[in-house]
Amino acid sequence: MAVPNDLKTILGKLQFPDDAQVMRQIVDQTLQVKLRMGRIKRKIVVMSGKGGVGKSMSTVNLALAFARKSYTVGVLDVDLNGPCVPKMLGIGGKRFELTPEGALPPLGPLGIKVASMDFFLPEHAPVRWKGSIELSPVWLGMLEMNVIRELLADIAWGELDVLLADLPPGAAADKPPALANFLPELDGAVIITTPSEVTTDVVRKSVVYARDVGIPVIGLIENMSGYHCPQCGHESDLFVGDVEALAAELDVPLLGKIPFDRDLSQRCDSGNPLTDSSHPMARRFDEIVQRIVDCLNFKEIVAQRL
Fold first, then answer.
1. Among 228, 152, 154, 226, which Cα is nearest to 196's?
2. What are phi and psi of 14, to 5 degrees?
3. Among residues 48, 64, 148, 171, which one has the fewest Cβ atoms lying within 10 Å of its Cβ?
4. Quick check: 132 and 126 in contact, CB under 8 A?
């Protein structure tokens, strides 16, 4: 007798002992995540062990840079408690469109598909988790993991060239391994840092941590590398530090440097993102995206030859 070897057939024959069928729901969602993610060519997480480094801003502008190069792009806003990607892309207040195929994510500039908790919330309303977490904080992490799994499983992403996942600020120790588990074909992480010595000390630990949980590190982006004067274009240092030395120590590429630019900051605040490459900061992100593509293509070629 032939033994079934495809995942869907095997899962369909499993027996679940719990009356609430929670285990079945998790298995079904896991299968759905694999099916959805199988239509996405590249999956990248953007993270940093330090808060306040401009991670969401970097994610948004990386997505725009990919889209400017004619890639089809999606952004998953994993910061469930402080989602800000929709506002930066100028699509705050939109909602998912429910269809038989799944929830269609709102479209941002250049056709970028976005999934965020912000689309479930009234304006300025905080996320308030209720239930067992009031008795035990352990439930909070489990609840958030379920929400992330549902976002990946229930949203009809369609075929994408790139999916960028914007991770929460700070340590958020549960999110990277969860995404590595949800996305076994994760291409890697882009780590955001600033030149501050305090930040680089934390980022060093984040790179080691990412590798320990099986997430390849694509490279570092040095944000706020200096101050870009809007009048004369001169750049001056903001912090004392050496990200180039950190990248060399960790044996990861330094993908690029982004100075603090007042116009870029105002555009993010007002939801008026950079959609063309004429802006100096847009050109910087275009160069970084090209380096990311080159790094991923190089790793793919090496893997095929080994």
1. 226
2. -70, 145
3. 171
4. no
Please report, as a single letter, which amino acid is at residue 187. D
Count how many Cα atoms sit within 13 Å of the Cα of residue 67 in the half-sphere of its side chain. Answer: 25
**To which residue do tokens 């369909």 refer?**
12
The helix or strand, by DSSP H or E, that contains position 223, with its residue range, turns out to be strand 217-228
Phi, psi for 207 (deg, rounded to 5): -65, -45
Question: Cβ neighbours of residue 23 under 8 Å, at least 6 residues apart?
Answer: 16, 17
Residues of the chain under the 70 pLDDT cut? 1-25, 131-139, 170-174, 233, 302, 305-306
pLDDT of amino acid 111: 96
105 burial type by CB count under 10 A (0-12 exposed, 13-18 middle, 19+ buried): buried
Among candidate residues 65, 72, 110, the one with its CA nearest the CA of residue 286 = 65
d(CA 220, CA 246): 9
Please report the pLDDT score of residue 28 as a whole number: 75
pLDDT at position 252, please? 95
| Radius of gyration of the CA atoms of the chain, in A | 20
